Amino acid sequence: MDQTVKKLSSSSDGAIRTVRVATRLVSLIIFVGILFLFVMVPTKTYRIKWIVEVIEKSDSTYFGRQGSTILIYAFPLLFSAVLGCLYLHLGKKTNDNKSKREKEDRLSVLNRSVLVKGPLGIVSTIELMFLVMFIALLVWSFCTYLRNGFQGIEAKAAKKGEKLWVTKLGAAGERLALTGNIALTFLFFPVARGSSVLPLFGLTSEGSIKYHIWLGHISMTLFTAHGFSYVIRWIAKDTLSNQILEWERTGVAIVAGVIALVGGLVMWVSSFPRIRRKKFEVFYYTHHLYIIFMLFFIFHVGMTYAFISLPGFYLFLVDRVLRFLQSQRNVRLAAARLLPCETVELSFSKTPGLQYSPMSIMFVNLPSISKLQWHPFTVTSNSDLEQDKLSVVIKGDGNWSKKLYQMLSSSSSLDHLEASIEGPYGPASTNFLGHEKLVMVSGGSGITPFISIIRELMFTSSVLKIRTPKILLISSFKNSSDLTMLDLILPISGPLDLSGLQLQIEAYVTGEIEPATKNFKPLQALWFKPTATDEPASAILGPNSWLWLAAIISSSFVIFLVSMGLLTRYYIYPINHNTGGNYPSSAQSAFSVLLMCLSIAMAASGAVLWNKKQNTKEARQVQNMESSPSAFCNVDRELESLPRQSLVESMRLHYGQRPDLKRMLLECNGKNIGVLASGPKKLRHEVATICSSGLANNFHFQSISFNW
Hints:
Elements: H1 2-40, H2 44-58, H3 66-91, H4 97-106, E1 113-115, E2 123-124, H5 125-149, H6 153-160, H7 164-187, H8 209-237, H9 240-243, H10 254-270, H11 273-278, H12 280-286, H13 290-301, H14 303-306, H15 310-327, E3 330-331, E4 333-339, E5 343-349, E6 361-365, E7 375-378, E8 389-395, H16 399-410, E9 420-425, E10 437-443, H17 448-462, E11 470-477, E12 503-509, E13 524-527, E14 534-535, H18 545-576, H19 585-626, H20 635-641, H21 644-649, E15 651-655, H22 661-666, E16 673-678, H23 681-691, E17 699-704
Parallel strand pairs: 3-14, 10-11, 10-16, 11-12, 12-15, 16-17
Antiparallel strand pairs: 1-2, 4-5, 4-13, 5-8, 6-7, 6-9
């Protein structure tokens, strides 16, 4: 009987893996097809033959000329996103660790860092390859656009009565914008936190922020050059004051382009590292100008052309609406622990159905500190070990976090704190068990993602009884008080058998040459009372969230197409008869944007309301559990029963020195060693340099940087 069950399970896993491979392959083909399309777009073959035939076959009274760009650009990428949802849903039903390990072994050379220092940060071989190919695509597109655009330009200049260089400058400026639109097409994919596209390529939203930064710099450079090219052209023609204020009824709306460019420039300037790090609030608030940028970009170019770059923005809007709906809930903040190192651990109540992976990120809003600011923090709890608790650790480094620590530490009568969250967001799967040894190097608060990894391995070892890799945690702190962050490694949910966990901790206190003699403030625990409007954190789309996301993407797009088709057929077509004239293009764009937003809002709200019943049921179960003695109310007592002796015995303290990372890493034995670095940029670069030096070929390096 057992053998039959095992065979059926193995057969089911095999079928699921086959479907996942097929799904991923189809998505890859779509992606390659889109890139090939961008290669062909500047050519005469595309402009004179391909697109003409597509327009003739797709032109209808329902969609007009928009039908061709919807069919070629929008539909394939949105279909790929739906396939990604299916891929991720099936991934929850099987354990794919073995197959992943084999793939990583074959591609391990491509994942090694080749660039460490410089404006691009830490870049692997495969990232550099894709970046070079993307730059080559942009260069090819611009040069091909320019070559075709300059053919017969002398005659055009003579016909317009312009100087040749003025006409050429205008042609070059237009081609710069066409090239920049390629970067804009991919700009929003990395910032959709619940993306179903990124995991198809082994990426996460937090790990892909650097791609968003690269694409943002490229697109704004090209768009800025486009704008200044036309300004210089108009100055040369002495028509600047007239043309810069033009908003043609059916053509290009120049004023809209100026507004979009100004909004983009403000975002661009505020996103440079010096401003973003020192004036985060400026960066945070000005980045909301993306609404102005995209809206007036659509008015500038018209909806037909905007559909080329719209799929990424469409998926971002779906993600943004879901985040907004989740953020409207008041989440129960159950407890807080104050550490002597000005660090706070916030513990939220959660439903058992909310599952997340190690290294997940959660955005927190506390209206008593700021009603508008949302800050990302690493989730340190484990959804298997702590089924009713969701915890984040906040180090008092910025103004917001310092205000939080001061408020909690100075007010003993505080019994409630209003809070909202977005997330958690994290990798779809992890593969820590595929390594013989894990070396985790952290600096300061960079230890927080490693707490979640260690807790995951605790659960795997003590509960699932699965052999885990050896763990070497190398942590650097400035002061002795920071060592209390190591206490957070052990969960407060109950005692665990840590005999199977091979953990070694090397802790370095760099700012002191000997243990501090002064007495630190004892760990302070605070408990909060819930209100009637507070509810446990829950998965906004329920346990089958990926299937619901697929339903939202597909149904919202169908609603959008149907509503836009009816509007075009019975209102716009009788006026312009698909000629592109008579009816204002800006009005048509405004209707399309409005219908798109309404379609997404309807589909997302419907899915959330449908799942609210299940979430409410789980929330009642959690409230019943919390009415009896729980982990939140017995923190002090349970801390005494935790296996602290095992943690102390595995720890070695070093004062007045920094870790010799090169020696410690090269002394690690094993064929497959996972190396993770989290913390200051200098630390991550040092570890990346060692792993990519060629002195050892058994390192699999990963830099953890949450650069929101």
